[in-house]
Amino acid sequence: MSVQQPFTPDMVERTKQHIKELVGEITQLSQSDMPAEEFYAQFLQRVVAAVAGVGGVVWKVGETGGLALQCQVNLRESGLTEVEKEKMTEHSRLLYKALKHPEGITTPPYTSSEEEAGVTGNPTGCILLLQPLITEVETVGLVEIFQRAEVTANTLGGYQRFLRQMSELAVEFLRTGQLRNLADRQLLWNRVEEFVKTIHESLDPYQTAYTIANEGRRLIECDRVSIAIRRGNRCRVEAVSGQDLFDKRSNAIRLLNRLATAVVSVEEPLWYSGDTSNLAPQVEKIVDEYVDESHSKAVVVIPLIEPLREEDKEDYKKRMDNKKKPIGALIVEQIENSALQSTLRQRVELVEKHACVALNNSLEHNNLFLMPVWRAIGRWSWVMKARTLPKTILVLIILLTLLVGLFVFPYKFEVEAEGQLIPVDKAEIFAQMDGDISDVNVVHGQVVQPGTQLVTLRNVEFEEKVTKLKGEMVRTNSQRASKTALLRQAADKMEQSRLAGEINELNVALEYYAREMALLQRQQQNLVVKSQIGGIVVTFDVKEKLENRPVQRGQVLMEVANPNGEWEIELYMPEKRIGLIREAQKDLAEQFPDGDLRVTFILASQPDEKLTGKIVEIHKTAEVREEKGNTVLVRVAFDKAQVPNPNMGASVTGKIYCGERSIGYVWFYDLIAFIQQKIIFRWF
């Protein structure tokens, strides 16, 4: 006989932690968008594990009110599958009774009771925990847990409360799913409404076919939709979704024309998903050829039949010969998936219904005799009617007057460009050697003087070179001292001559080392970067950008500007407009040799105040700037008193006065330049 081990605090804590994890998993499941079958299976497994039950069942309430098994866990171990039919009926009555108790019920094992509807009972050796799943509208299901019979009453009450709480999470999942379904259905109807509205906007058959193909593909959610229009006894594909233009002589289009013609001739829809055994012989061969060419897994061809008007419906009922003829075909293709789901069939039928009406209306309208002529006459005939003729003449006079005024009356001509505000006295600080920045001695906005130390660099290779040279000088001095001592002690003249020559060589080497050391010392000064001008550091976050970073010779480290000096504007004039400015500058020079072009500008920070300046320089070369394209730099000087507190880099919009031109030229000079460059130059 086994002795049950007592529960230790550690075991209790692990059990609580495990139950918390299961509750967290169930909460995450209730917030997911997985299918209901998968949710119920995972939900039931975790609930049974949390209450340490024998098993469980989730029952689903059908449309007629009956219960159906949704999913189960260890149903065979509960013993319910082995009870007699009469006991199973009692169990069923118990389930229906539980549906009417929102708080749930608990039933001991092997019990039964007499109710109005009959005997209800628990035919199993387990305690039954029953909890209905109730939404705001209806009861949708029932959770049944088979619990061990030896569980105490207090523990059983906790299990029932836990089951009630978990059932609320399951109801939340169902409620979210219902809302999602309603949202999807509303979205579908919105898309249908937009589809119907769009395909009826045009009365051109080809535009209508193109719209049906593209909008229909989005509504059906398939890979490709094509529209074929019937001309005589043949159908021709006139629109393919996603393609503005397509090769009508390609093999795929020619085979699709034949397939549409064959299906329309028999006036029976084609639903192909891989099996051609039930197709007509003349259709089967063409389907196989087209599928081999296009590699489509599923092909649907629906004949578009001319719809009946209200006045024709009574005649149609009386006379079968009044049957309408096909006007084209709707072709739907699935390239990756061969399954033709029910939703796809419903949406195809919906698109076919509205496509028939829209395409038939456009064909009837377009087939009227001399329709383009009548359409043009209808558009303009109202202007010649007796009542509107005086108004028409008055409008023509006004338009003619305005047209003449555009090319006669002068107006000031200004060329606009964007730029920035910068001080005249500024300098970019460059690195004069390669190295790593070891120290940044200034911060943004700090005032510096000429010669102020800004940045200190460190070059490991340079330091190694200096150290090596110093070592060579020490070694050479030591050798020279040794040779000198030997020379003093030598008595042989040949030995003295040899030692004197070696000492001379060492002296020459020392002179070379001294010159090289002086050169390295001058280069070492370049490791300390100093300011060439006085001003303030305008580079933002200079320490964060430069500290402990490797730099190369010539790289810009920071910028120093003198805000107390003069300021100017840099306008980035598009290259296509610089010719107008140079021409105006030339005309001004002929009249006023000392004159400068006037510039009117506004700051982004002061858009309500117009300021003035004059051009002092136009660069001779154009530069490509990232956002502005190919531009020419125009420097503009202005009185600093107009901008008391200028900010470096402030955005400026400037207009350069280029004399007077006609109003039409001022308004449309970009269009005139485009015509001259793209049309007149190329053709004349």
Residue-averaged pLDDT? 82
Strands of the biggest beta sheet: in what spatial order? 13-22-25-24-23-26
Structural class comes to alpha+beta
Total strands: 26
Distance N to C terminus: 113 Å
Helix content: 40-55%
Oligomer: single chain
Folded structure, characterized:
The chain has 684 residues and is of the alpha+beta class. The chain contains 16 helices and 26 strands. A six-stranded antiparallel beta barrel has the order 13-22-25-24-23-26. Strands 2-1-7-6-3 form a five-stranded antiparallel beta sheet, sandwiched between helices. Strands 9-8-12-11-10 form a five-stranded antiparallel beta sheet. A hairpin with a 4-residue loop joins β6 and β7. α1 (9-30) runs antiparallel to α2 (36-50) and α2 (36-50) runs antiparallel to α4 (153-199). The longest helix is centred in the N-terminal third of the chain and has 47 residues, at 153-199. The chain is extended and about 135 Å long. Mean pLDDT is 82; it is low at 1-5 and 318-322.
